[in-house]
């Protein structure tokens, strides 16, 4: 079925699946009267379909094998796969010729690529909401946006034009997924967890030992099989599955990474509250944030405090539902 679909049809199906922001930005910009397009440089099947339809000349598959890969890298300064990804992306940018070219954090970028992009785009904008990455040319952008105030201050300190833009919930999700009633007396966690998230793992371990928890992320093989976290692990969750989890559980746990400090700025806060889950988050230092503690969100000071409040919520579903 995929082979019979056009690039545009495949792109629409992918963006409607709710992964990350899905087509939320497209819908929002279009609703404001702009023309908007979205591409995913790392989605290889989709990008190859674009290349096929546009009849782009790309290196043959055997060029990625040794010793041809070595020759290609020496000749062009990058691997054949990297060259193809950049070639297709630049063709897409040239095709659309946008006034504003918006990159999300996580997109592979370097100064040379951005300078090529400027041949076809008037302004370069970057959304960044993750730890800083060495080598990313932040100063090449005309504007850097972030939902984390400390990052905005950091960029401004470097003389980079930056602004604070919060995450949001696209209420069109509720047209596809209805929250369940009654809610499960469980706390859900959906997100990143690795050996680098020490405090987050400690909190999840504490919760998993004492309350019903459902944990979703990509991979848990760094944990022993008898770990309470491993026992509560339900596999990865992406796109609409994330909203289904939040729409069925009474609570949603959260613990900021160091970069975000004590702010209520994570995308999870918006996804979970949008689906009616009662979020458990760290007590914020910013009391003037978008969520009112005790009314729209439940906050905790320590991990033990989090456990007590999680127990209270799963035992008092009406209160969790009200919040």
Strand percentage lies at 5-15%
Write out the strand line-up for the largest beta sheet, numbering strands in chain order: 6-5-7-8-9
Helix percent band: 25-40%
Please identify the structural class as seen in this structure. alpha/beta
Question: H/E element string?
Answer: HHHHHEHEEHEHEHEHHEHEEHH
Radius of gyration based on Cα positions = 22 Å
The end-to-end distance, rounded to whole angstroms, is: 44 Å
The main sheet comes to: 5 strands, parallel
Note poorly predicted spans: none
| Number of H- or I-type helical stretches | 14
Mean pLDDT: 90
- Compute the number of strand runs: 9
Indicate the topology:
Elements: H1 7-15, H2 24-31, H3 44-54, H4 68-76, H5 80-96, E1 100-104, H6 111-117, E2 123-127, E3 143-146, H7 149-157, E4 162-164, H8 173-176, E5 184-190, H9 198-210, E6 213-216, H10 228-232, H11 240-246, E7 249-253, H12 267-274, E8 278-282, E9 298-300, H13 303-315, H14 317-322
Parallel strand pairs: 1-2, 2-3, 3-4, 5-6, 5-7, 7-8, 8-9
Task: Walk me through the structure.
- This protein is an alpha/beta fold.
- It contains 14 helices and 9 strands.
- It has helices spanning 7-15, 24-31, 44-54, 68-76, 80-96, 111-117, 149-157, 173-176, 198-210, 228-232, 240-246, 267-274, 303-315, 317-322; strands at residues 100-104, 123-127, 143-146, 162-164, 184-190, 213-216, 249-253, 278-282, 298-300.
- The strands form 2 sheets. A 5-stranded parallel beta sheet has the order 6-5-7-8-9, sandwiched between helices. A 4-stranded parallel beta sheet has the order 1-2-3-4, with helices on one face.
- It is globular and about 60 Å long.
- The termini are far apart.
- The mean pLDDT is 90.
